[in-house]
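Q: what does this look like with magnesium ion bound?
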Amino acid sequence: MSLYHSYITIEKLEDHIGKEVTLNGWVSDKTDKGKLCFVKLRDGSGIVQCVAFRPSIGDELFEQATSLTQESSVSITGIVRAESRAPSGVEVDIANIKIWQISKEYPITPKEHGTEFLMQHRHLWLRSTRQHAIMRIRAAVVKAIRDFFDGNGFKLMDSPILTPNACEGTSTLFETKYFDLGKAYLSQSGQLYAEASAMALGRVYTFGPTFRAEKSKTRRHLTEFWMVEPEMAFFDLNDDMDLAEDLVEYIVQYVLKTCQKELAAMGRDVSKLEAIRRPFHRMSYSEAVEWLNNNEVKLNKKQADGSEIQIDFPWGEDFGAPQEEAIMQQFDKPCIIHRYPAEVKAFYMKRDPNQPTVALAMDMLAPEGAGEIIGGSQREDDFDALLSRIEHEQLPREEFEWFLDLRKYGSVPHAGFGLGVERTVKWISGAEHIREVIPFPRMIYRIVP
Ligand code: 4AD
Ligand code: MG
């Protein structure tokens, strides 16, 4: 039996009305009423109701249908019939059933389960309608990202995951032993390698898992997440922001075009996504601080005695989620905040020649409470300036010699950014928590399954 060549999926059934097909899948639900038995079959592409009618299929087959339990695996052969009342537009009249396995008592039932229980059963939870929809949206987001870059003259240049040093600061590094060479770290970002790649291929992107030993237990943090990082030679901060807007608009519009069913399954308000069209909003960090203070958005500050007071937001401090959320209340499109204080940003960012206290950095914040989805910057391309930043941050110079070389041999203005895949999927899908948007989430308190 070759299932490969005779493979018809539920999402394509409307093309087979009036014909006999064989579907392979799992029983998501079953009810029987007298001479009728209704089997809801899911195959990963969709769900369709299959109907067994006792007088036409006979007692033996009918009893097989009624014996099916939730998640039993079956191949069902039958005629496809148009059915306007069905969500899929079709039903299948069962002519034959091949049972692969009658499933044991399936732990996830249609009743409500707690999050902890569902997370422990993540390997099974992925089969449920909502998780299924999120995973298909995730696949569409990843495809949109690849199509966007591949179609715009970028080359994929993957960065290593085992690295000798930090990219985004040393506090969140996962460490491992590396043979006789001492320690290695799991990459926090492929950027430094992407910079080298851009000097070889012009416009590149690196796309892979990145790791942060983050202590944050929020709805937006994972310890392992996927990031796409474009890096472009002969690009400045403005070019970088333009590209980031183009990419995000493309992703959202692609998901809208290809994932209507999935967005409906999520109950997502698609009018909010339809509004995601360029130009987005832009604001400098200094303007954002002024806005916070004009709007009485105070900062909670801990005193020496442990008590908290509320103060005006001081220029120089990094924004946290409360500031970002406050700023985004006024917008229904993403907003890019640019030119942050250099001291709160990474060592590799170029300072603004017009205002050396700020870095040519940018973050894109998404609306509806989604928060930061992109972080990027124009890079320091001057050898001496970069070296002094490395020394100021007390980073080991010898490990950054190769990175400094890029500023010795044909240095050019260049820029790039990183877009977090899970943050983006969470926003677009409307999922409540980031743990739902990656197949097997890794968080401080979870590594199983
Ligand atoms: O702002 P970040 O730290 O920027 C960088 O890593 C740069 N080196 C990127 C570059 O310029 N090439 O991270 C980029 C994005 C964030 O905006 C966010 O979307 C995501 O990565 N991100 C996380 N997503 C999930 N869990 C976490 N712990 C994340 N940390 C960052
Ligand atoms: Mg950031």
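The longest helix spans residues 129-150. The longest strand covers residues 20-33.
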